[in-house]
Amino acid sequence: MFRINDNFTKLPASYLFSEVARRVKAYAEAHPGVEIIRMGIGDVTRPLCPAVIEALHSAVDDEGRAENFHGYGPEQGYAFLSGKISEYDYKSRGIDIEPDEIFISDGAKSDTGNIGDILSTANRVAVTDPVYPVYVDTNVMAGRAGSLGEDGRWSNIEYLPCTAENSFVPALPVGNPDVIYLCYPNNPTGTTLTRSQLKVWVDYCREHGVLLLFDAAYEAYIREADVPHSIYEIEGAKEVAIEFRSYSKTAGFTGIRLGYTVVPKALKGLDSNGDKVALNPLWRRRQTTKFNGASYLTQRGAEALYTPEGQRQMKESVDYYLENAAMLRAGLAEAGYEVVGGINSPYIWLKTPGTMTSWEFFDYLLDRYHIVGTPGSGFGPAGEGYFRLTAFNTHENTRRCVERLSGK
Ligand SMILES: *Cc1c(COP(=O)(O)O)cnc(C)c1O
C-alpha cells in the first residue's frame, strides 16, 4: 500500500486558536449578557481602501470584455505590478531591486512555507522564539526538524529566545545553522531591530554562508527612522537574504490574498557538488511549475496602492491601528504591566504578572475583564509567561479595553 509523508504525523495538533475559541465560547455561555472584547485577532478589521475598491471594480469590468480579458497571467506576476514594487518599495529607498527579482504570489504564508522546496532537507534551521508557527511547521513537514522534545522544542531546530532578559534582541546562533528566519517588525512580540542590529545578522550570514529568510509582513507599520523597511537596506544583504512581503496587514488583503517575495540574482547557494547556484532561477522554476499566478483582479487592486491616493489611504488605515497600539501600550504600562511592541507594529506583547502562565493569564483576563488575547506560549517555549494583544479593532473597543484594564 502507498505510504504517507510521516513528517505530518509528527506535528502536534494546532491547538492555540481553537483552544482560545473553545474557552471564550464556554465563558460566554456560562455568563450570558457579558460583553467580551476580542483583542486576540491576528486579522485586520478595516475594509479595503477606496483606491483599491475602484481598481478592483475596473479589473472586473476588464474581465467582462473580450478585448481586455485576462486569463492565465505570468506565474511570477504582472509587470504592471512588479514594476511599481521595484520603484516604490525599493528604488525610492535607494535599494536596487529589479522587477525580475520580484515574485508576486497569493501571500507570505504560502511563500515562507514553500521556500523550503528549493533548499536541501539537510539544512539546519534556526528560528527566533517566540515565532510565527509557519516557519517551524513547514520545516517539520519537510523533515528538517528532527523530533519534538518534552520541552516543546524540535531536536534539529535551533531556538533563539527573545525575552525581557535580552530585551527581545536574539543572540546570534551557536549551532551553525544553514538557514535563519527573522521577522521584523516581529509577530508576535511587536519588537523591531535597528539598522545596526540587523547588520550583525547580515554580516554573520555572509561570513558563515547562511541563508537569511526575512519576513517583512509588517513593514508598513514602521514609523521610527532607525528601523529598516527592507533587509536590503543593509549592505551585502542581496547576497544572503530572501525577503517576504504581504499586502495582508498593510492594505487589508487578508481576504483577497496577495504578497511577494524578493529573490535577488546575487543570492547563491551550494549544490551537492559544492558548486554555487543562483536561487532566483530555482524559485522561478518552482513558482512557474507549482503556481499559476495571483489573480489579475488582486494585482490590479494592489497596483492602485502605488498612487498618491493609494499610499495616503493605506497609511491612514495603518495609522488607525497604530493609534490603537499606542493606546494599548500606554494604558497597559499605566496599569503596571511590562509591555513591548506597539510602536512600529500592531502587536503588544506583555509579561504576565508574577508567576502566572500564559494560559492562566488568558483565563484571568477573560474572567475578570472580559478581554480575549492570545497566550504567548502558543508561539513557542520562550513565549511562556507572555501574552499578545492586537490593535486590529476599533478605537472604541480599544479604549474600553484599556479602561477595563486600568480600572477606570
Ligand atoms: C500575517 C503574517 C503574514 C502574512 O501572510 P499572508 O499569507 O500574506 O496573509 C506573514 N508573516 C507573518 C509573520 C504574519 O504575521
Brief account:
The chain is of the alpha/beta class and 408 residues long.
- Unique bound compounds: pyridoxal-5'-phosphate
CATH topology of the largest domain: Aspartate Aminotransferase, domain 2
CATH architecture call of the largest domain: 3-Layer(aba) Sandwich
What's the main sheet like?
Answer: 7 strands, mixed
How many alpha or pi helices? 13
Unreliable spans:
none
Question: Which range best describes the helical content: under 10%, 10-25%, 25-40%, 40-55%, 55-70% or over 70%?
Answer: 25-40%
Oligomer: single chain
**Category by helix and strand content:** alpha/beta
Order of helices and strands: HHEHHEHEHEEHEEHEEEHHHEEHEEEH
The CATH C-level name of the largest domain is Alpha Beta
Q: Tell me the overall shape.
A: globular
Q: What distance lies between the first and last C-alpha atoms, to the nearest angstrom?
A: 65 Å
Q: Domains counted in the coordinates: how many?
A: 2
CATH superfamily of the largest domain: Type I PLP-dependent aspartate aminotransferase-like (Major domain)
Placed side by side, the strands forming the largest sheet appear as: 2-8-7-6-5-3-4
Percentage of residues in strands: 5-15%
Q: Roughly how many Å is the radius of gyration? A: 22 Å
Arithmetic mean pLDDT: 97
